[in-house]
Amino acid sequence: MSEAQSVSPSKAEPAAAKERGFLVSSAPHLADKATTSRIMFEVVLAMVPLLVAGIYFFHFAAVTLTVLCVAGCLAAEAVANRMRGWSQASLRDGSAVVTGMILAFSLPASMASGSRFYMAFLGGVVAIALGKAVFGGLGNNLFNPAMVGRAFLMICFPAAMAAWVSTAPMLQEAKKTLAAEKGVSLEALGREDVDAITTATPLYQAAKLSEYVAKAKAEPEKRDAWLAQAGQIRDEMPGLWRLAIGNVGGCVGETSALIALICGLWLVMRGVADWRPPAALLAVVVLFAGLAHWINPDRFPGPLYHLTSGALMFGAFFIATDYVGAPLTPSGRLLFGAGVGLLVMLIRTFGAYPEGVMFAILIMNALTPLIERATHPKPFGGQLQT
Known about the structure:
Low-confidence stretches: 1-18
Distance between the termini: 49 Å
Helix content: 55-70%
Largest sheet: none
Number of strands: 0
Mean pLDDT: 85
Radius of gyration: 26 Å
Number of domains: 2
């Protein structure tokens, strides 16, 4: 009689234990309580203060863009799952919602107007369809889906993507100034007088300042005229506090660098976002901007101006930390962040486009496989000889 047969029924293993087996898979073998849904929920939660700030500065436009972009992402995700014969479980993991919110936050408030509704929705569809679904779904995409959607909108609707409007506090200040000039009360102003006030973004102002200073040096005979225009731009440029809180023209969820920094640090402390990409990115920006400002302070703004302008702070913590688009290795993530920071400053300083976060992220996404290959750790005992 075998040993197994001699065991009494009361001491035999439960049936469930007999069915246990080993799950064989390739390395790395990591165990963590974090799930995709929990991570995405925390990212969404971290972006809620940015949405609140967007509502304060741009009113209902922030909500409209967020709803449209998220709806476009969810619709594209559902269609992609249906075409592949997959379940619709990915609609509940939050990844499409995060993509939609990031895309919405990187769009100008003017895109929430009635004639442009479809653009935001279409951007969400393209973000998932071309940025994620064609690569095989979550975890397989090469590029950040939200930036793919934004790049699509930049190519197809350049005028709409550059139609910047004043924030609500800026609009109220403009109303007071206009009422004082006309000698009437605020209530007496017509809607046509105040509803269509456009503005320049801080980065556009910095680019024009650099252009005028360069022209003053290249054209001595017109030097005074160019310097006068440069001085006017310099007087109109917002102060650091306005930049930090977000009371400037720009995208609905990116203008407040201070809130983006606080929310990003919360993600880092929660372990949701890795500190390496944003740390390397911001360090390179500070070094590059500081050196340029030291060489020519009249032409190039200082590091604080760049840190608080545009999508830099939002991109550093919410886009550059993307699990899929960034390398897996720690040193690779440092290189990735540094590369994004360098490209952002090169584009902002020497490029024709005043902002560079989107382009920098997409370029470094394409270089991620090479970075991972270069920074892949040596196996214990060395490489196998074949």
